[in-house]
Amino acid sequence: MKVSRRDMFKIAGIGLGAGMAVKSGIAFSASSTPQRIANYKIKKLYHGVAYYPELWPLEDIDRDIAEMKKLGINVARMAEFAWSTMEPEEGYINLSLFKMVMDKMYAAGIDVVLCTPTATPPIWLTHGHPERLHKNENGEIMHHGARQHASYEHPAIKKACFNIIRAMAKELGKHPALIGWQIDNEMKAHVAEDFSDAAIVNWHKWLKAKFGTIEKLNEAWGTHIWSQHYQRFEQVPAPVKTPFLHNASLITAYKMFCRESVADFMKEQSDILHEYSDLPVTHNDNPAFNIHHERSMRAQDFASYDAYPNDKQWPALVYRSDMYRSAIPGRPFWLMETSVSHNGWLGNHQPPHPPEFLKVEALSVYALGGEAFCYWLWRQQRSGAELPHSAVMSAWFKPSIGYTEVEKVSKARQQLEPFVLGGKMVGAQVAITYSDHARAMIETEALDKRENFPNRYRGVIEMWQKHVMDLGIHRDVRFENAELSGLKVLITPAMPYVSEIFMARVLKFVKEGGTWIAGPVTGTRGKEHTVPTTAGLGLLDEFSGVETKFVVPLTKTGSKGRGFNIETELSGWCAAMQPKAGTKTIATIESGVAAGHAFITERSIGKGRVVVLGAQPHGESAQRFINTLITYYADLSGVTEKYNVSSGTIVAPRLDHNGHKLWVVINMDGQGGRLQIPAGSKDAISGKKITNTELHIAAYDWRVVYPANL
Question: Residues in domain Beta-galactosidase trimerisation (predicted)?
């Protein structure tokens, strides 16, 4: 018998009031889509470069390939900026250069990933056609000369994009060197919402498809405010400049429209590629890019990402590995771009990496579930906007600043590879929720404005991931619609709208024994970025067994709370709660405007529990408070994938090809570290037993350990 979402809430003893009607919705999780390759096993670890043969003399190609082989480079990514080389005039397409290079790569045993070149349209496509160009919210048109200047909403742009993609797929899609495709390049890295005329037309179509009638839009957005009431969809503006501010519902909806539209454009590209090629498709993503990241995974067969951290920013690399490892279950991710030493462009550059840092970057990617570690770029640009950027080879073709570090990566890859091939990551038991809808809402309406608090949504999620990482707990970052199987604790911070679909999935998770920690701001807004009118935290009030008396900002109020025998300052938007029967108060606000109310509650449902954290701890004791909170519920939930490891050193738990558990231990901060290990553990590379129960890791060093009795 099929159980409705309403019945699922009833099973837990949770009634649905009039304001809690269950609505239909669409989940965008890649985990719900068929995987083209099931039971995928890594057969090699890829060590790659971005290669641009269109920029250099043809006679350099053989020399490049010979040097790549010498360095242990086994994959090259090409063509993402080569549209004008492929199609110098409209309708005249010549792919012979790339076929010739691929022939040479194949002969040398180097695999190839081909990119669709749609990030840099040629001049003939946009010259004299301003209507085909991207327009920002200030009405400024993005002109030819860099990249991402065209409007993917314009039919002429789409037609030209699909034409070159189809030609590439038909002619090169079955080349023996080719192992995969990349869609576009860093989609929407430099631009945000598109306000071109073509975008506005599609915006109105999107609204009509979403709401059906203008009356439903008016009701959902509360448009009688400031006489915003609309008579037809064509009257609904985009959120361009106004004397003050647009309706929050409109601002967030436009962000979602633009980001969903880009993801759908990616899916159209992918569909064309798969017409002529059965090879997997990816896109070099980044949490900063202005797309719907979860929806974009429908266009991809494996996830990949960019990261350019300096040595102080290494936690961001681990965060992205945790996120993209979970994005498409069953397939390892790739790190498609990183610098061999320093990042740089005309306006800025970062300091060079210290010796050995690149090696541990690569090892962390491989150990945390990555299949490839690739550099941007092979040879330093001799022209363009990124002249200061580091590369493996200089423009005059001499080993550059990162060359010897690439040699170290190659050696380390070969040492690690036997323990990774045919194996897999151990599943995480703790995860942090990432929501594209939440991101858009928080960009519209910011969180905590205090100094040093993350000013972007991704910073908040990364902050919580780092809390868990620093406790030595193996973790995932999972999209809003991802499966919760295997988890014991789910942390959902900063998700203003909690949907019925998400709540039903969390209910099942909790009933089966999981712990859901709903973090600050979660539940404070409705689907269309309005304030809930049935309860302060919408569905979350009844689900968690609380009554939210009010929601108030505590930043700079001096408010303090106490829980776990720890006093902490509080900031951000606070849900001042009163527990109902069956719900426990875990922490109470002791001073300030919300004194006397609970700010952490716990309710048991089935075998598990739902915990609401209604305010953000900060100040000197904040770290200890949050660590205690996470540790308490991890222990209560039976989390076992946690390690007594010093800060700055990470542990990646894996199973080798025989199903034996191993730990890859890597010092990332250059300070050295230590890890408690069971007596009798073995060093996997040397085969020798480790005599101590505390393993010491030197600065930027690494070990592979077979832990005893596991």
Answer: 428-631
Mean pLDDT score, 576-600: 97
Asked if residues 281 and 301 have their Cβ atoms less than 8 Å apart, the reply is yes
* Geometric angle at alpha carbon 441, from 435 and 444, rounded to 5°: 145
Helix (H, G, I), strand (E, B) or coil at 589: strand
User: In terms of pTM, does the model score above 0.70?
Assistant: yes
Q: Which stretches does DSSP call E strand in 351-506? A: 370-375, 424-425, 430-434, 475-479, 489-492
For the domain 649-706, what is the CATH code? 2.60.40.1180
Out of 269-283, 445-459, 499-513, 654-668, which region has the weakest mean confidence (pLDDT)?
Answer: 445-459
Return the C-alpha torsion angle 243, 248, 250, 252, nearest 10: 120
Confidence band for 40, pLDDT divided at 50, 70 and 90 = confident
Both tokens assigned to 205? 């179509």
Which whole number is the average pLDDT over 376-402?
A: 96
Asked if 603 and 609 touch (Cβ cutoff 8 Å), the reply is yes
pLDDT in tens, 427-464: 999 999 999 999 999 999 987 878 888 889 999 999 99
Average pLDDT, the chain: 94
Query: Residue type at 321?
Result: S
Sorted by sequence, the CB contacts under 8 Å of residue 459 that are 6+ apart come out as none
Going edge to edge, which strands form the sheet with 333-337? 281-282, 178-182, 111-115, 75-78, 46-50, 370-375, 333-337, 304-306, 284-285
pLDDT tens-place string over residues 152-178: 999 999 999 999 999 999 999 999 999
Cβ atoms of residues 455 and 510 within 8 Å: no
Q: What is d(CA 156, CA 153) in angstroms, rounded to the nearest whole number? A: 9
Q: Check if 260 is active-site.
A: no
Domain boundaries, the chain: 427-636, 649-706
Write phi, then psi, for 211 (nearest 5 degrees): -105, -25
Of 80, 87, 153, 186, the catalytic one is: 186
Round to whole Å and give the CA distance between 535 and 183.
43
User: What is the average per-residue pLDDT within 466-489?
Assistant: 97
Evaluate whether 114 touches 168 at the Cβ level (below 8 Å): yes
Helix spans in 496-618 (H): 500-511, 539-544
Instruction: Tell me the fold of 427-636.
Output: Rossmann fold (3.40.50)
pLDDT tier, 38 (very low <50, low <70, confident <90, very high otherwise): low
Annotated catalytic residue: which of 80, 87, 337, 569? Answer: 337
Q: What is the pLDDT of residue 313?
A: 97
Residue identified by tokens 């320093």 is 342
Instruction: Output phi, psi for 406, to 5 deg.
Output: -65, -35
Annotated catalytic, 528?
no
Peptide bond into 540 cis (omega under 30): no
